[in-house]
Amino acid sequence: MMNTSHNRQHDRKPSRALLWTLGLGLTLLVMMPNGFVARLQAQAPDPSTLPPPPQASSPTLPSEGDPEIVQTLVSILQKHNLPAAAAAWITSDGIQKIGVAGVRKRGSDVPATLKDLWHIGSNTKAMTATLTALMVEKGLLDWQTRVGEIMSQNEWAISIHPDLESVTVTQLLTHRAGFPSNLPWHDILPAAPRRAQRREAARRALQTEPEFQPGSTAQYSNLGYVVLGAMLESKTGKSWEDLMRSMLFQPLGMNSAGFGGIGSPGRIDQPWGHLSGGSPIELNGPTADNAPVLGPAGTVHCTLQDWSRFVLDQLRGFQGKEGLLSPESYQAIQSRHFEGEYSLGWVPLERDWAGGTAYNHTGSNTMYFSNAWIAPNRDLAILVCVNQGLDAFEATDEIVAQIIELVAAEHAAQADQPSSPDILQQ
């Protein structure tokens, strides 16, 4: 719980909008360079200690978008010495405020723009979970479908270890299949088509004795999502990439979405990746990413606006509103399974500022960092992207905290006007 001693005392009961600023302790999952996941238990800063937005009439870094978001981004980029960041504040009505600040590549003066692409890393996982839900709705599989039902029943049949025959789709999506975190991805048939690579990854995973009894323990696993991708490909005869384009990106209007690294090699035409410490990667472009076989676990890139289209659909669905999926599918995605800490592609967390359960995930391919929060009870989602690797976590955390402060201030101002209902009462 955050220190609330900074809250001003009024001669009336403080607005419920102040609840937005309480309890912003963040618990995030971040993919480390060795492929394992580090749990970052981070108590977000007391808003009274956060650096105030710059008061100058114009920011000192190139920027574009809503002034409140831009001021937050400029302040935190300068504090953490990061090249660029973009952020969006979303409600069920769409993007409310959006902004970008900084430069595409450290050492250049090329500004990042609102048209730029961002690599979202493991925030791809929620998209793979949603793709799986669409397959369930079509009757091609269900949440309890076992790997043995698919991966040993076609022309590419795989011999499966007896302890893994009964691993289910839900166990794969919640990191409870008994798999290790990763394989040596770049060694998996590098010259072969992606479907063949994923089948080979699945073969290696499914023929090996599990590290623990499936269903008994959670261990964050990119491999589990790759095996699931291989199952979807085996069932449909199409690549995971083609399924994502036709079943998710196109219906949601995510026209910028793609896979792998971004930008034209050698040209600063998109945000350039930076490693922890701030050094630009040697060469940008489509191959500047993890191996393509990892797709279902984390290779999507898109504009912030297009990522917002996906997260908007999740927010609305989690609120019981009409969306791409059925109400039952949204419920399956947001529910905790096996009494665990992971839902399907999201980490559900209880937060006072969210009015209950919030859904979080982060992503990084070690060259970019993304951070997403959905708070259905507050009709709020916040997205942050940075073109630097794992050490950008703290900065994204602070950007989220400051945007929550902006939202709280706006709702408090509305609540203070007699003619405006308190949004937080809804």
Describe, in plain words, how this protein is organized in 3D:
This protein has 426 residues and is α+β, with helices and mostly antiparallel strands. Helix content is 30%, strand content 17%. The chain has helices at 67-80, 124-137, 147-151, 169-173, 194-206, 222-236, 240-252, 295-298, 304-318, 327-334, 393-415, and strands spanning 25-31, 37-43, 63-65, 84-91, 94-102, 117-119, 258-259, 300-303, 347-351, 356-364, 369-375, 380-386. The strands form 3 sheets. A 7-stranded antiparallel beta sheet has the order 3-5-4-12-11-10-9, with helices on both faces. A 3-stranded antiparallel beta sheet has the order 6-8-7. It has a two-stranded antiparallel sheet with strand order 1-2. Strand 9 (347-351) and strand 10 (356-364) form a beta hairpin. It starts with 24 loop residues before the first strand and ends in an 11-residue tail after the last helix. Residues 1-59 and 419-426 have low confidence and may be disordered.
Question: Helix count?
Answer: 11
Order of helices and strands: EEEHEEEHHHHHHEHEHHEEEEH
Report the helical percentage: 25-40%
Mean pLDDT: 86
Rg to the nearest angstrom?
A: 21 Å
The N- and C-terminal alpha carbons lie at a distance of 24 Å
Strand order of the largest sheet: 3-5-4-12-11-10-9
Shape, please? globular
